[in-house]
Structure formats: structure tokens, C-alpha cells
Amino acid sequence: MFDLKTIRDDPAAFDNGLARRGLPAKSPEILALDKGWRAAQTKAETLQAERNKLAREIGAVKAKGGDASAIMQQVATSKDEQARLETEAGRLKTEIDALLAGIPNLPLDDVPDGKDEHDNKLVRSHGMPRNFSFTPKDHVALGEGLRQMDFARAGKISGARFVVLSGGLARLERALAAFMLDLHTREFGYTEVAPPLLVRDDTAFGTGQLPKFAEDLFRTTNGLWLIPTAEVPLTNLVAGEILDETALPLRFTAWTPCFRSEAGAAGKDTRGMIRQHQFNKVELVSIAHPDKAHEEHERMTACAEEILKRLDLPYRVMLLCTGDMGFASRKTYDIEVWLPAQNTYREISSCSQCGEFQARRMNARFKPKEGPNKKAGGNRFVHTFNGSGLAVGRTLIAVIENHQQEDGSIAIPPALRPYMGGVEVLRPDG
User: Fold this and answer.
1) Catalytic residue from among 275, 310, 316, 360
2) Residue 345: CB partners within 8 Å, gap ≥ 6?
3) Which of 71, 73, 120, 386 has the CA that lies 20 to 30 A from 20?
4) Chain centroid, CA 182 distance in Å
């Protein structure tokens, strides 16, 4: 969501940001509606002031025993006109809000211009892909070979894009989530939260899922939405609040199921666990001071990277171009893990800074402390950040593919063994 004053002050900059996103100029349409809205508001307020004056005149005329009917008729006409103008102002404001709600966040200056993932920029890489002495299998072959990953039964129960994990793989997925949560809470200072999995319209609107991406979500019959990521409830923990500056930053983490219809992903990643309707993820969310935006974004990305380092998984960090960023983001790092069976890197985390885009939609602000840091204008909008820390299912895929053995067993990374009861190798009888 955007500040109308900012668009009025520099419409060219606003349209340039949209152009970098591959979108047409919107400021002429927005400003035309804005002009009409403000004109209707001003006229309505002028009529109210005039009517107050007329009311005093009526009192004076009646006090002298005169006939005030003409003035009273004038008041009635003014009242009707004011009501019409207020209705018109309300209609125009609703139209403005609806227009702004569908416009994505504008990219920061250091975000590379581009159309899609081919224009993303490599920031750094860590670790070398393993040189296998045998042809590595993909996670589906490995999981089914262990008899602990079942897509057929999941399809019988729920349909396509679901899986049933059992035995050692089910425990390994749980171990991954526990390991991630422990690292983020004990070493990185995030507060663990167990949030609702169902949210209201205004909650999904606050983080930018609604109204534009309704088809990507699952909705219940009573109007609630299943969360596509814990970013939605975690970020909305501060919706409508005014925080003390000294409380910032707030850092939250949660392990939740996530639900996505994958409406725009027909035919993509139909094999295996890469893209499913239901999956588990450990999410990171920060609510921070605007002056700390760059620092907080880099910190969050480093926290997500550390998971992969401790699991001995090769990865790279990509700075997304303007055409590949998410709707609410103004800058995003994708962390991509190496998958040997695909012989490529695949996204396992997106760490985004959203500026005040989500905060405006949620009306989440902070009260600056007294002193040189306190700026004119009263309360300020917080800045929000979100990232996967990590997608648990995709991390499971990366672990079993990168740590597979020639006989189809899986070597458990040392960092996970305490969570696996000391198990060092996952076998069919495990």
C-alpha cells in the first residue's frame, strides 16, 4: 500500500518504480481519482461550515420574530448536497484504495532490472556439490526405496500434490523443524510462536495475499483462509498497534503447515515433493525500525543460510531482479540449495524486506523516542521482513539427495543426530 502524498509529490518516481516492475504508469489514474476525492471532501466540509453559519442566522431571525423558512430551506438543500458529496467522496476513496491494493511494492535502487529468474544476480555461494561415485537418485526414488515416502496413498486420500511420510523420513522431517527452531530461538534471538492456521480477510490483506492472490489460497466455507505461510499470522501480530521504538526489532519464528492451491503452477514440478498443496515450513519474521532495514535483511538471510551450512548442503544466494520479486517485496534474496538429481540449484528460502508496504496495509506503527531520532509527523510505520528458515520439505529433499549412499540409505548429518535419537544412517528397516 502506498502513501498518496508520496505519489502526489513525485508521480514520475512512482511510475518509474512500476516501469521497473514491467507495469504501466498508474499515477495519472490515481491522481485523477485523488483530485476528485479531495474536491468532494472540501466541498462537503465547506457546506457544513456554511450550514453552521445559517443555523446561527435562523436563531437570530426567530429571536426577532421573523420568518426563517427561506433560510431553513437553504439549509435543507445544503444538507442534501453535502450527503451527496460525502457519498461521492466515499466512492472515490474506495476506488483509490482498491487500485492501490492491487499495485506491488516498488523495488529498491540496488535491485537489478530484469524480466524473470534468468536476470537474477549471484551474490555468493557456499560449499561444493558432492562428486558422487555413482549416479545419484532423486528424492522420490530414495524415499520410495526406503518405503517411507508414499505418493500413491496420499493421492488416494487427498489427490495430487500430497505425500505421506512414515518411519524414519517422518522423524527426519520433524527433526529438521526442531533443529531449525532451536537454532533460530537459542542462537539468533527469535521468539517461537504457535500461530493460528486460519486467518480473516483483513489479515491476509495486511501481508498482501488479498485481494490479488485469492486464487492461490484455500478458503473455508465460513470465509477463513488457510495460511500459505506463517508470514501471514506472524506479521499481523502487530497489526493496528503502536509499538515503542525501544521494543524494536521484534523477531518471530514458527513451524507450521502451509497450504497453497498452486493455481499458477499447473504442470510445474509434478513429480515429488518440490511443489505441494500442503507442506511444512519454519518461517522468520522481523518487525524493525526503518533505519535498520538493510541490516535486518542481511541478518535474516544469514540466519537462514546457517541452517544449510550446519547440514553440509551446498547453496547459493541470488538477488532477485525486479521481474522475479514477490508482490510485497522491495528487495529479495533467494537461497537456492543444490539438488544433485536435478543437477541444479532450487529455491529453499526467500528472504524479503517489504519496507512499510505491509505496515501501511496493517496500520502497524511505532512511537519514536524523544531526542534527535524523533522526527516530525508523530508515529511512523514499522518495516517488515520475512523469510523461510527453512522450507522443511525442501530441506528434507536436499538432505536425502545430498547425503544419499550408493545402497539407497541416507547418512544423517551430525547436526541432526541428537534429534534422531542418535541414528546415523536411515535405512528401510529404520
Assistant:
1) 275
2) 315, 316, 336, 337, 338, 339
3) 386
4) 23
Q: Which domains does the chain have, with CATH numbers?
A: 4-101 (1.10.287.40), 117-426 (3.30.930.10)
Cα–Cα distance measured from residue 198 to residue 196, given in angstroms and rounded to the nearest whole number: 5
Q: Is 275 a catalytic site residue?
A: yes
**What pLDDT band is residue 1 in, cutting at 50, 70 and 90?**
confident
pLDDT tens profile 230-283? 999 999 999 999 999 999 999 999 999 999 998 666 667 778 999 999 999 999
Q: Which residues pair with 251 in a beta bridge?
A: 286
pLDDT at 393 over 70: yes
Indicate which residue of 260, 299, 361, 380 is catalytic.
260
Which residue in the block uniquely carries the three cell numbers 498482501?
Answer: 208
115 vs 6: CA distance, rounded Å: 26
Residue 365 known to be catalytic: no
Please identify which of the residues 350, 352, 388, 409 carries the catalytic annotation.
350
Cell of 272: 515429488
Asked if 350 is an active-site residue, the reply is yes
Q: Which of these is catalytic: 21, 361, 394, 409? A: 394
* pLDDT at 266 (0 to 100): 64
User: Residue 132: CB partners within 8 Å, gap ≥ 6?
Assistant: 340
The Cα–Cα gap between 60 and 54 comes to 10
**How many residues are recorded in the chain?**
430
Q: Which runs of consecutive H residues, i.e. helices, occur in 197-260?
A: 201-206, 231-235
pTM, rounded to two decimals: 0.92
Burial of 134 (0-12, 13-18, 19+ CB in 10 A): exposed
Residue 170 confidence (pLDDT) above 90 = yes
Strands 365-367 and 242-244 come out as parallel
pLDDT for 267 equals 67
3-state secondary structure of 242: strand
User: How many CA atoms lie less than 13 Å away from 302 in the CB half-sphere?
Assistant: 8
DSSP state of 314: -
Count CB-CB contacts under 10 A for residue 162: 18
Q: What was the pLDDT predicted at 375?
A: 54
pLDDT (0 to 100) of residue 118 = 97
Name the phi and psi angles at 97, rounded to 5.
Answer: -60, -40
Rounded to an integer, what distance in angstroms lies between the CA atom of residue 393 and that of residue 151? 14
pLDDT band at residue 429 using 50, 70 and 90 as cut-offs = low
380 is catalytic: no
Are the C-beta atoms of 345 and 338 separated by less than 8 Å? yes
Q: What tens digit of pLDDT does each residue of 12-27 get? A: 999 999 999 999 999 9
